[in-house]
């Protein structure tokens, strides 16, 4: 029987390797009839279920293998991966911790644990994990890149650059590492070197809109009307876990609160409200007391996951602002903090806003200030647009919106320097009786 099982295991492994997943599953199940507590076979069966896009089945098998005495560490590792796929980062961390206690040099487990810690917002612990990952698996390009991303978030820009360079040494065609290194070099003022890495990204991925956009921010060609949605999504998906900690604590970001104080004298109860580019929902608690219906939209699904944890919104939608707006009824208030900086030409955005406001409805928003009123807007090497006061007022007027409040403000810090901005509130025509809002 032992020899028969060994033969069947080889057949199952070969079928799995060749992509004959049904045959592999059948063979592994047959072996488990004889050896129900084989961690090796349970883990192999779980990976078949993963390859068949059946994560629920895989999870059950991995859990059984992980609960064996002793547990299958490979199954534990795969169970950790599934928990990360499900968004249970704390659960994944507990599993990876148990793994590295048994196998301290398991570089992949350290790397994945670092990713999970970043998602929970603990960047320092993430860096500690990534450092262990590269110590025990020095040829893991992904771990070096992840280390660089975490260092970048803590403004360790030169260290991050070295980590990205190490990832590229290991894997020269690692497009993400080239892109990340380009961004770091751009922050350090090494613009020509940054340009070279963006061009390398485009050699590897010719359709990479983010790399094209960052090249345009360096002045290599005429800038587009807006940052590509792919680029904005990449930024905020990557930083969703650490967004609030870094933005509020490190960059002293107070724009949502400042904007609310500007518009609050004009607010009444029972409003229908749209949070345009809501992110993690930093401003939502200010508007909730006034809102009968509060919906948040954002291009980043991971930011929306964080916003949902606040349990404040009535609805959250993945949404590209430049797509067709299909809301069933207009809003009483649309507010948008630090979102218009990703759009140069504001005309299509303001047009959509105006067409989705009730008469008497209001828009409250922020922009980075461009001192030169002779120019409408300008794309800077930060990858963000600044707008002149005159341009914004003209755009509002063109779409029937009348400014009622405006003020200068420091909207955030960048590399230790204050970033000047404008906060504006505008109204659409005279007020009319409110219509019921349908979800």
From TrEMBL:
Name the UniProt record assigns to this protein: Methyltransferase domain-containing protein
Among Gene3D superfamilies, the record links this protein to: Tetratricopeptide repeat domain (1.25.40.10), Vaccinia Virus protein VP39 (3.40.50.150)
Domain Methyltransferase stretches: 273-361
* Keywords, ordered alphabetically: TPR repeat
Single GO MF descriptor: mannosyltransferase activity
* PANTHER family assigned to the protein according to its UniProt record, in alphabetical order: PROTEIN O-MANNOSYL-TRANSFERASE TMTC2
One Pfam family of this chain: TPR_11
Domain of life where this protein originates: Bacteria
TPR repeats, residue ranges: 39-72, 107-140, 141-174, 175-208
**GO terms, biological process:** protein O-linked glycosylation via mannose
């Amino acid at each position: 029987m032992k020899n028969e099982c060994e033969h069947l295991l080889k057949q199952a492994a070969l079928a799995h390797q060749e992509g004959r997943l049904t045959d592999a599953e059948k063979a592994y199940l047959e072996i488990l009839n004889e050896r129900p507590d084989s961690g090796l076979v349970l883990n192999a069966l779980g990976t078949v279920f993963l390859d068949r896009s059946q994560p629920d089945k895989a999870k059950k098998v991995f859990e059984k293998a992980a609960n064996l005495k002793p547990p299958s560490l490979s199954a534990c590792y795969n169970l950790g991966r599934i928990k990360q796929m499900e968004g249970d980062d704390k659960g994944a961390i507990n599993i990876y911790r148990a793994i590295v206690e048994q196998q301290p040099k398991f570089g992949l487990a350290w790397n994945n644990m670092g990713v999970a810690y970043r998602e929970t917002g603990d960047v320092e612990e993430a860096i500690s994990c990534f450092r262990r990952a590269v110590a025990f698996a020095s040829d893991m390009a992904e771990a070096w890149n992840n280390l660089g991303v975490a260092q970048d978030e803590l403004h360790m820009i030169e260290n991050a650059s070295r980590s990205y360079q190490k990832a590229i040494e290991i894997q020269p065609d690692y497009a993400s590492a080239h892109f990340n290194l380009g961004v770091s070099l751009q922050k350090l003022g090494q613009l020509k070197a940054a340009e070279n890495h963006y061009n390398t990204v485009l050699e590897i991925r010719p359709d990479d809109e983010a790399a094209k956009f960052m090249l345009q921010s360096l002045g290599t060609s005429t800038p587009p009307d807006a940052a590509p949605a792919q680029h904005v999504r990449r930024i905020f998906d990557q930083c969703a876990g650490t967004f609030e900690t870094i933005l509020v604590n490190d960059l002293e970001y107070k724009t949502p609160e400042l904007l609310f104080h500007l518009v609050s004298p004009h607010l009444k109860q029972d409003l229908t409200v749209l949070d345009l580019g809501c992110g993690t929902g930093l401003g939502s608690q200010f508007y909730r007391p006034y809102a009968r219906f509060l919906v948040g939209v954002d291009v980043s699904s991971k930011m929306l996951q964080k916003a949902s944890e606040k349990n404040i919104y009535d609805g959250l939608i993945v949404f590209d602002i430049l797509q067709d707006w299909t809301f069933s009824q207009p809003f009483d208030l649309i507010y948008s903090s630090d979102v218009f900086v990703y759009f140069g030409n504001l005309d299509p955005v303001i047009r959509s806003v105006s067409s989705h406001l009730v008469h008497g409805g209001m828009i409250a928003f922020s922009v980075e200030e461009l001192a030169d009123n002779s120019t409408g807007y300008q794309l800077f090497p930060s990858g963000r647009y600044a707008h002149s006061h005159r341009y914004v007022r003209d755009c509002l007027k063109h779409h029937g919106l009348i400014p009622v409040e405006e003020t200068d403000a420091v909207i955030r810090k960048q590399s230790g320097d204050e970033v000047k901005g404008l906060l504006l509130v505008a109204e659409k025509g005279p007020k009319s009786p409110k219509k019921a809002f349908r979800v």
